[in-house]
Amino acid sequence: MSPFEIGLISVVAMVAMIYLGVYIPIALGVVSFVTIWIIRDNFELPLALLKVAVGDSVTEYSFATIPLFTFMGLIVSKAGLGEDVYRVMNAMFRKIMGGVGMATVGANALFAAVTGSSIASASVFTKVAVPEMIKLNYNKRFAVGVVAGSSVLGMIIPPSAMLIIYAIVAEQSVGHMFLAGVIPGVMLAFAYILAIWVMSKVWPRFVMQDGKMVEPQDQEHLGAGQMLLLCLPLAALVLTVLGGIYTGWLTPVEAGAAGAALGLVIAVLRGKIDLKGFWSALLETGHITAAILFLITAASIYSRMLGIAGIPNALGSFLETYQLGFVGVMIILVFLMLFLGTLLDTASIILIVVPLFLPIVEPLGVNLAWFGIIVVVGAEIGLLTPPLGISCFVIKSTINDPSITLKDVFMGALPFAAVMLVVLIILIEFPILSTALLP
Fold first, then answer.
1. pLDDT tens string 195-247
2. What total number of domains does the chain contain?
3. Could you tell me the residue range of the domain that residue 63 belongs to?
């Protein structure tokens, strides 16, 4: 067999192993290692490449942003800032049909600007938003669906761990990726709010149990001063982290360190964390960082295997032969990501797709920061689609209501996955939306 055929078989075998439940980095690393060994008939070559992959991952300066922003997100969650910003948004939108859903989207967008974690957002707002909506006679599917849909904002609104991972794999600036994510992230949040407004007009029974609002009996009244005080800690974090990066005063690594330190100070001053909680956050940060490092290392040797097998070149030649061009590449990319989204988590999709398509899109002259946004948004859709919609599973495991099934969560999230797909098509059609803020 030719190297291309061996490489193609290895990719199929890797996807099959993942689908059968093999840990994703193990599947990526083992299959890539064995494939290189078979193609070159040299056991020492994959060993040398594995050593290089490990060294490159550990010594990458931008990788330091991952533990720092992860720790900041965990501390901010413990400090209760998500609940505070939700109270403010809820007070502003509660009297509007579907307003609690809009408030959830707005709060998730602001919360994402300091956590960068969809899992943290899904966990926090499942506890505070879903019970509130059910109490106000919202449809259960809508209640869990809007939390699932808006939780993915954490993956695109900077600081985002997925944008960092893409920056490392594609060798792009983390700061540039953060800038590229601002407009698409805000646009997706507004698209969700618009979709909720439209659904409340044309499909009211999906939003409310009987299609009618219930006047809240115990609505919390917040004055402008109270709202300001509740939002001040979050605003300080956003200003420190994103303001520092966008003005050039701080590098992404320094901004992550400053944000983590400020988040810890806020949590301590609010009495939300003690030594036990601090140690728990450190341990969880270590676990998450180690898992991502393992993924990036496996993806590094996987990308080398693809190059040795000649798969990107063969795919590029196929596209050139049939003159599919840019549109053809984007169609194949989107369908591949939607398919992988039914099997894999977002990070794994990024690490599999980027090494495969990067050699193809670079000659097309596209902006690689824009391409990263397309990949991340496309991969995010998988968070809401069965059978492995991680945000949906987190919501189901967090909510304490046996009457809400996993099917309810997926069905509720489906309209928001459709909105994401529309936004993805718009971002592909108008790259300026991702590149407008880049220097």
1. 999 988 888 888 887 756 666 555 556 666 777 787 788 888 888 887 888 88
2. 1
3. 3-435
